[in-house]
């Protein structure tokens, strides 16, 4: 190759890399401005903190064996967050849901069994609903944190993965991959660096990792596409597993780049893959409970865009 051509190629690569860096700097600025990373004063940030604290308590009651007396600090924090929230937003749905969680905590402190404080589910009813129309499938899916420990029935993971692979992806690039661990030692290895599975995932029959191969993207504009395509893949997978009658809980992979690299080395995943999330999958007990997880009212979710006059 002629030296001029080589130089031109290097210059082009350098220009693209500079464009990527600049885009990331702007992303970082956007995140720093919009999120609660640097500023927890905005009302939406405060409200999200309160929702997260409520979930910590509600999730605790939905574990197979909650730690006795757990949540003393958490409930005090929630009390403070809710008072603050009410002063600014009044007694809105978050405040009301928070009061319900505090009430459940009082019941718990007075000796109520955790299973009485969570939503009771019957595997038979849930599995029936998951085979009805789409609305029943979606409404009956919940994050499951109680499993029998039995292995998954033959073929169900394969069928679910086949459906997940039908998820849309940008220009049909189809970069999503599913990595499954079923052997106990490998499951433990996959979970070692994940924060959020404690107290339940050891009873899952399989632990899965959803990744997206970055090799399928090539423009600066596509730098977040792995998480969009991987998220769509994961959602189809979760619904397909639910349709198979299995229990499933998404597990976050919200980590630093160092942790991400360590995880891929530990588990043996390709360095170039983007890890989207982990999943615990298992067989449903006949009866189990799930965490109360209130959703925002539709008025906060659905907005109409209108042309300005
Ligand atoms: C990307 C993602 C990561 C999650 N990570 C965890 C986790 O680490 N541990 C956990 O117990 N639940 C986790 N969840 C489950 C959420 O807590 C749950 O989806 C939410 O509370 C709503 O409840 P539902 O799934 O029962 O409707 C995660 C969910 C998503 C979508």
Explained architecture:
- This protein is of the alpha+beta class.
- The protein folds into two domains: 43-117; 119-290, NADH Oxidase.
- It is 50% helix and 13% strand.
- The chain is built from twelve helices and six strands.
- It has helices at residues 3-34, 43-61, 72-89, 93-109, 114-117, 123-129, 134-140, 156-164, 184-191, 225-243, 257-267, 298-301; strands at 119-122, 176-181, 206-213, 246-251, 273-283, 287-290.
- Strands 2-3-5-4 form a four-stranded antiparallel β-sheet.
- Helix 2 (43-61) packs antiparallel against helix 3 and helix 2 packs parallel to helix 4.
- The model has no long low-confidence stretch (mean pLDDT 96).
- Flavin mononucleotide binds at residues 55, 59, 142-143, 145, 196, 249-252, 277, 290, 293.
Keywords:
309 residues; alpha+beta; NADH Oxidase; 2 domains; 4-stranded antiparallel beta sheet; two-stranded antiparallel sheet; globular; binds flavin mononucleotide
């Amino acid at each position: 190759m002629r030296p001029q051509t080589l130089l031109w190629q290097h210059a082009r690569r350098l220009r693209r890399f500079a464009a990527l860096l600049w885009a990331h700097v702007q992303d970082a600025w956007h995140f720093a401005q919009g999120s609660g990373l640097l500023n927890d004063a905005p009302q939406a940030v405060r409200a999200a903190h309160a929702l997260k604290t409520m979930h910590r308590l509600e999730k605790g009651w939905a574990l197979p064996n909650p730690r006795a007396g757990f949540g003393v600090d958490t409930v005090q924090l929630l009390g403070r967050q809710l008072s603050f929230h009410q002063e600014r937003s009044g007694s809105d749905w978050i405040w009301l849901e928070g009061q319900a969680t505090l009430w459940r905590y009082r019941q718990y402190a007075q000796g109520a069994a955790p299973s009485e404080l969570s939503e009771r589910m019957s595997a038979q009813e849930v599995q029936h609903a998951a085979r009805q129309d789409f609305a029943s499938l979606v409404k009956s899916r919940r994050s499951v944190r109680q499993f029998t420990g039995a292995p998954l029935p033959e073929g169900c993971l394969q069928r679910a993965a086949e459906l997940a692979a039908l998820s849309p992806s940008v220009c049909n690039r189809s970069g999503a991959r599913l990595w499954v661990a079923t052997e106990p030692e490998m499951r433990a290895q996959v979970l070692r660096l994940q924060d959020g599975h404690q107290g339940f995932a050891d009873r899952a029959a399989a632990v899965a990792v959803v990744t997206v191969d970055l090799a399928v993207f090539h423009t600066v504009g596509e730098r977040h596409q792995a998480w969009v395509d991987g998220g769509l893949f994961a959602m189809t997978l979760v619904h397909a597993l639910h349709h198979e009658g299995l229990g499933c809980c998404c597990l976050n992979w919200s980590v630093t780049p160092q942790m991400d690299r360590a995880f891929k080395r530990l588990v043996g995943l390709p360095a170039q893959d983007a890890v989207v999330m982990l999943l615990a999958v298992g067989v449903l007990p006949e009866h189990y409970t799930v965490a109360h997880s209130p959703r925002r009212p539709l008025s906060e979710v659905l907005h109409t865009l209108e042309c300005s006059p």
